């Protein structure tokens, strides 16, 4: 499913010229603004896809862990690997949940580290997918953040428009330049 182009109209009608356009959300485009029939279909399909991706990721992790178990590396190594996968999945799920509910700017500390903790996020991908699935049951993942950002931008635009209407930038008719 591709992202939709930015619509020229909002749910309330045509947007004034210069008004902020809503940002698209992955898998939903800008359909989250009006919540039309396309939005409802995607809201039904995205959790199913996230759950299938979670199951596929868990299966891959299981094969990897079973490979270590079959290698006779020892019970300690096997236990350590299982614990590492569990911790990475929990950390990735927490980070993804915060990312989807509060936005990237809310990530601080270890959650904001993309490069140095990249391996943790990859190993914990199943946890991140599970968080995405659970969040998609509530709303389009990231919709609350984008909706708040869009509404704030619209309010700023409306305030600027109201200020401009109170301060006309042209002179009153009939008044010419001053002579010196």
Q: Can you characterise this structure?
A:
- This protein has 180 residues and is mainly α.
- The protein has a domain of 124 residues.
- 61% of the residues lie in helices and 2% in strands.
- It has a two-stranded antiparallel ribbon.
- The longest helix has 34 residues.
The string of secondary-structure elements, in order, is EEHHHHHH
Spatially, the strands of the biggest sheet line up as 1-2
**How far apart are the first and last residues' alpha carbons, in Å?**
68 Å
Largest sheet: 2 strands, antiparallel
How many strands appear in the DSSP assignment? 2
Shape assignment: elongated
SS-derived structural category: mainly alpha
Mean pLDDT: 81
Give the proportion of residues in helices: 55-70%
Low-confidence stretches: 1-13
Q: Which band does the percent of strand residues land in?
A: under 5%
Whole-angstrom Rg? 25 Å
Please, how many helices? 6
Features:
180 residues, mainly alpha, two-stranded antiparallel sheet, 6 helices, 2 strands
Task: Summarize this structure briefly.
Residues 155-172 have a biased composition (Basic and acidic residues). The chain is an all-alpha fold.
Topology record:
Elements: E1 9-10, E2 13-14, H1 31-34, H2 37-70, H3 75-102, H4 118-123, H5 125-138, H6 143-166
Antiparallel strand pairs: 1-2
Helix pairs in contact: 2-3, 2-5, 3-5
């Amino acid at each position: 499913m591709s992202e939709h182009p930015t619509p020229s109209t909002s749910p309330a009608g045509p947007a004034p010229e210069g008004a902020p356009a809503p940002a698209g959300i992955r898998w939903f485009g800008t359909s989250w603004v009006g919540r039309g029939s396309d939005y409802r279909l995607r809201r039904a399909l995205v959790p199913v896809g996230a759950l299938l991706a979670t199951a596929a990721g868990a299966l891959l992790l299981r094969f990897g862990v079973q490979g270590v178990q079959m290698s006779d590396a020892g019970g300690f190594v096997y236990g350590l690997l299982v614990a590492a996968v569990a911790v990475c999945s929990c950390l990735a799920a927490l980070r993804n949940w915060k990312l989807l509910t509060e936005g990237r700017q809310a990530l601080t500390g270890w959650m904001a580290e993309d490069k140095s903790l990249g391996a943790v996020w990859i190993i914990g991908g199943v946890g991140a997918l599970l968080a995405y699935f659970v969040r998609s049951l509530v709303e389009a993942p990231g919709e609350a953040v984008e909706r708040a950002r869009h509404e704030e931008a619209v309010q700023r635009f409306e305030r600027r428009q109201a200020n401009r209407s109170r301060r006309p930038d042209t002179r009153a008719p009939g008044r010419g330049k001053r002579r010196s």
